[in-house]
Amino acid sequence: MDIQPHDTEPRWKRKAYSVIFESDTPAGRAFDIALLVAIVLSVLAVMLESVHSIDAQYGYYLRIIEWGFTTLFALEYIARLVVVRRPLTYALSLLGIIDFLAIVPTLATLVLSGSRYLLVIRTLRLLRVFRIFKLGQFVGEGEFIVTALKASRFKILVFLTAVFTLIIVVGTLMYVVEGGQNGFTSIPKSVYWAVVTVTTVGYGDISPVTVLGQALASVLMIMGYAIIAVPTGIVSAQMAAPRPTAAPAPLYKQVICHVCQAGDHRPDAEYCWRCGEKL
Amino acid sequence: MDIQPHDTEPRWKRKAYSVIFESDTPAGRAFDIALLVAIVLSVLAVMLESVHSIDAQYGYYLRIIEWGFTTLFALEYIARLVVVRRPLTYALSLLGIIDFLAIVPTLATLVLSGSRYLLVIRTLRLLRVFRIFKLGQFVGEGEFIVTALKASRFKILVFLTAVFTLIIVVGTLMYVVEGGQNGFTSIPKSVYWAVVTVTTVGYGDISPVTVLGQALASVLMIMGYAIIAVPTGIVSAQMAAPRPTAAPAPLYKQVICHVCQAGDHRPDAEYCWRCGEKL
Amino acid sequence: MDIQPHDTEPRWKRKAYSVIFESDTPAGRAFDIALLVAIVLSVLAVMLESVHSIDAQYGYYLRIIEWGFTTLFALEYIARLVVVRRPLTYALSLLGIIDFLAIVPTLATLVLSGSRYLLVIRTLRLLRVFRIFKLGQFVGEGEFIVTALKASRFKILVFLTAVFTLIIVVGTLMYVVEGGQNGFTSIPKSVYWAVVTVTTVGYGDISPVTVLGQALASVLMIMGYAIIAVPTGIVSAQMAAPRPTAAPAPLYKQVICHVCQAGDHRPDAEYCWRCGEKL
Amino acid sequence: MDIQPHDTEPRWKRKAYSVIFESDTPAGRAFDIALLVAIVLSVLAVMLESVHSIDAQYGYYLRIIEWGFTTLFALEYIARLVVVRRPLTYALSLLGIIDFLAIVPTLATLVLSGSRYLLVIRTLRLLRVFRIFKLGQFVGEGEFIVTALKASRFKILVFLTAVFTLIIVVGTLMYVVEGGQNGFTSIPKSVYWAVVTVTTVGYGDISPVTVLGQALASVLMIMGYAIIAVPTGIVSAQMAAPRPTAAPAPLYKQVICHVCQAGDHRPDAEYCWRCGEKL
Q1: pLDDT tens digits, residue range C55-113?
Q2: Which residue out of D165, D182, D191 would a mutagenesis test of the A interface target, given it has the greatest number of A Cβ atoms within 10 Å?
Q3: Cβ distance B131 to B20 under 8 Å?
Q4: pLDDT class for D86, splitting at 50, 70, 90?
Q5: Which chain D residue's Cα is nearest to C187?
Q6: Of the four listed, A64, A200, B279, C260, which is most buried by Cβ atoms within 10 Å?
Q7: Helices C211-227 and C187-198, interaxial angle, to 10°?
Q8: Which CATH class is domain D144-240?
Q9: Buried/exposed code over A2-18 (b: 16+ C-beta within 10 A; e: otherwise)
Q10: Partner residue facing D221 (CB), from A50, A51, A196
Q11: Residue among C143, C37, C230 at smallest CA distance from B159
Q12: What's the ipTM?
């Protein structure tokens, strides 16, 4: 994202950019942390507002806080647009869209009445929490996890395909075995039950009642138990693998014999190993 | 499975074989992916059909789609029989049987009335999804997982025997402790409860009520908690183990120059690297 | 357990001992497998007998089977007593006691009426399944797991102490927070709930209702989630650790200079490295 | 914590300090174990007291036991204050505060009526159990776990941030999807449900009922299933990592005999091992 102001731009703009977008100066770090706190508090306000008893009593204050944060985020969004070199590039980037969406829901309540569905968008602000990982020692650690997961992605995909197939086959089987009774009223419901079981969540809202169903469920559970070892093994092995180190010194001299064209000489060789010619 | 057409067979047959059975040509890959999409869609149709409200409204269209896919799979099955060298060998192979079963259930509804049990067979089509692993980068990854699991199979068997013994002993114990009450109405039911507990699924459809029962259940849970470390450890250790590589070629020739006493020559060196003397 | 017959004992006795107690001859292996099958079938009979509907219909036959197995196990027990050198040593060993207990419950039904509690003892027969691990390739694998667990036992003990402390402190806290309501009627019940939660079993027979209780429970769950990584990590690391290999060839010559008493010479040294004397 | 008595202090004080605070003498170990047993028994008494039926019958004796233990712990606390060099430093240390809190609750019941909240403090006595880890072989093991967790703390923090964001976003989404019905009555409740689900606890006190909700929940469960691999992988990799060892001394002297050109002499060799010449 090439939005950093050029060196030819005014000093205040470059300064503001480093504070708002970067975090390697004390001011930039302070800005990021303040923003983080504001995000967490604003999400907390949204959560509290959804509790009827709290909303009934403190709804008025929560709405004031809500508007305060929205103003704050709007100012921040405008500041970001001002300091970047290419505002449109920023506005259309993922972080830019999230930053924009953070101010939309509250404004929307002015126009729309049923803004309940906008609640979700408000919590998307939380995604900006990941900005914190630009700070200090987190960079390497976050990268380490992401790298390990990326390196394992094909293995995990193969594994998930196998699990999905198992889940759908067993889910259908249970639908037949339990005869569409006891909560297994359709194949999707039975598949939902299979997911709940294989992942060992086990709500118990649907559970087998027939003897055959319980036997089949037991087999599925034992399999789910063994299966969980696979993704864990994949990620563990990936993380325990030695990180690729700097390339070792070349084993051979980067020179070719001018007589016989032989290569791969010892690094300290003075004569060609094939024809004995001085290198 | 030696079903590949001989080089003496007509060109169109060999070409068709490579498209239908293999996936290392663009056409073969396209065929595999198209088949995969058809399988997933057909299973989706089966699943939707089992939902009463959807079946009541769209049942007619779903049945049309169902017949469409059945025709498609029938044509594909016939095509497979035609292009292979030994149709019977293919027809009796595991994949051949699954391919055949994919068209049976819909046809069977013409004859039989209660075809509910055939639903399961239809979802077995999903097993053909594993054909996708013949594609590109999945081969190695799938093999890696299967190899690790195979190498661990005796360890996992020993582990499962221990778990089964624990489950049956504790299940019987709970039957006695809870006195055949609170859902523990027979030993098989108690064993079912023990499986649900050890695997940490915990539906809660059966749960201990007496103090002694709850104490015993707590011990079982803590044990199940520790036990889950074992299969994970086995698979992790197996996957983290360095893959056995071919023994490396000796790095140096076991000879010393008779003039300058230099050693460590290339394995195929004919002249000394230090003084150029014939070795 | 020094119960093996001396070489001076009659041949038939030594032969019988090797068949009954060992499994490195074909006859011994066949005996072990037959015994295994008998044990599993007898436990199955006990389990089926506990199901009311099956007992009502087939109880008569199950009781006959029961007596058949008991006679079989009694004969086996007598045979074991006869062939060993020190019958008392065997009878008082763990396996000897289990073998004896395998025949007690059925006999006890002749005398006692309420033999329900003896059911548990019957399933203890299952512990003899572990004899199978003396067979073939299982020996090494079983030992591998046991060794890894033994090597980790102190780490696991430290870990379990921490978990128990957490469970009891949080259990008490929940008893106070939920005010003895909602199933948290006593500290032991709350502790039982904490075990159910930390192990991620989650029956749901007791679950927090107050806001504070649910918040506290959430913290406990996240902790339990992180905590499960610890025993798995311990066992994985233990299993992934390179097994101690055979001692490498000695680095030094096992000779001491007769002049200066220096040791640790190169394996091919002909002269002392300290004083230059011929070795 | 520099509270150990100086060598100039009376002998009995130094002796008492080593018994009470240390555990490398037989007396010190015996004291620690006795204390451990007293702590466990006292917590057990607190737990039993909270069971109504037991309290009704044995409450009188439990209260006597309670006072007995309180007296014991009070004496121990006074003894600790007497033998240390700086009583205030000890009293304000974490262990000192826990030791003090162990005696407060029982005394408080003399003054206060509703001492229910003091129950929690009583069980904090259990934290003193960790003193046991000063004993023998536990020191290293406990340190090993703590070191591995400490080394992984940033990775785990990054991981937990991601999990929390996921939980809050999905929780809010479910509140909207389930329309504030079926137990998802507020965002905090929905977030609580998301925690219960991601950690695979799955009480089932709240569970999705709408089709969309169950689909979303299935996705969350599969994610939670894959996610649990991450902390386990982190800790496993950390524990499996080779502990940094001191660099090994060079195996051979970097010198070649000027007579016979032999190399690979011992690092401290003065004479050639092949020809006996002074190096």
Answers
A1: 889 888 988 998 898 899 899 999 988 888 888 888 888 778 878 887 877 777 777 66
A2: D165
A3: no
A4: confident
A5: D47
A6: A200
A7: 50
A8: mainly alpha
A9: ebbbeeeeeeeebebbb
A10: A196
A11: C143
A12: 0.77
Min Cα–Cα distance to chain D from A5, Å? 30
Where does CATH 1.20.120.350 sit in chain D? 11-134
Alpha carbons within 13 angstroms on the beta-carbon side of residue D232 total: 33
Mean confidence (pLDDT) of chain B: 79
What are C253's strand-pairing partners?
A: C265
Query: Which residues from A are below 8 Å from C50, CB to CB?
Result: none
Instruction: Give CA D117 to chain center in angstroms.
Output: 24
Neighbours, chain B (3 or more CB pairs < 8 A): A, C, D
Instruction: Pinpoint the residues of chain B covered by CATH 1.10.287.70.
Output: 144-240
Residues ≥6 apart with Cβ < 8 Å to C260: C272, C274, C275, C277
Nearest CA in chain D to A39: D165
| Residues whose CB is less than 8 angstroms from the CB of residue D198 and which lie 6 or more positions away in sequence, other chains included | C225, D163, D166, D167, D220, D221, D223, D224, D227
Q: Which residues of D touch A199 (CB under 8 A)?
A: 200, 221-222, 224-225
Model confidence pLDDT, tens digit, residues B238-273: 887 765 443 444 455 566 777 776 666 666 666 776
Q: Do D233 and A148 touch (CB under 8 A)?
A: yes
- Tell me which chain D residues have a C-beta less than 8 angstroms from the C-beta of A228: 225, 228
Model confidence, pTM: 0.79
Partner-chain residue, chosen from D200, D274, D275, that has the shortest CB–CB distance to C200: D200
Q: Mutate one of A236, A238, A239 to test the C interface: name it (highest C CB count within 10 A).
A: A236
Contact predicate B95/B20, CB 8 Å: no
| B53-107 pLDDT per residue, tens | 888 898 889 889 988 988 998 999 999 888 888 888 888 887 788 788 878 777 7
- Residues in C closer than 8 angstroms to B201, CB to CB, are 201
Q: B131 with B35: CB under 8 angstroms?
A: yes
**DSSP string covering C70-93:** HHHHHHHHHHHHHHSS-HHHHHHS
> If you count residue pairs, one on B and one on C, with CB atoms under 8 Å apart, how many are there?
139
CB B119 within 8 A of CB A176: yes
Distance of alpha carbon A3 from the chain centroid: 23
**Most A CBs within 10 Å: which of D149, D150, D156, D158, as the mutation test of the A interface?**
D158
Amino acid at D15: K
Any alpha helices (H) in chain D, and if so which ranges?
11-21, 26-49, 52-83, 87-92, 94-101, 104-111, 118-124, 138-151, 153-177, 187-198, 211-227, 229-240
Checking if the pLDDT of A246 tops 50, the result is no
Q: How far, rounded to the nearest angstrom, does the alpha carbon of residue A261 sit from its chain's CA centroid?
A: 53
**pLDDT at C268 exceeding the cut of 70:** no
A/C interface, count of CB pairs below 8 Å: 10
**Fold assignment, B11-134:** Four Helix Bundle (Hemerythrin (Met), subunit A) (1.20.120)
Closest partner CB to C236 (pick from A201, A202, A236): A236
Closest chain C residue by Cα to residue B165: C126
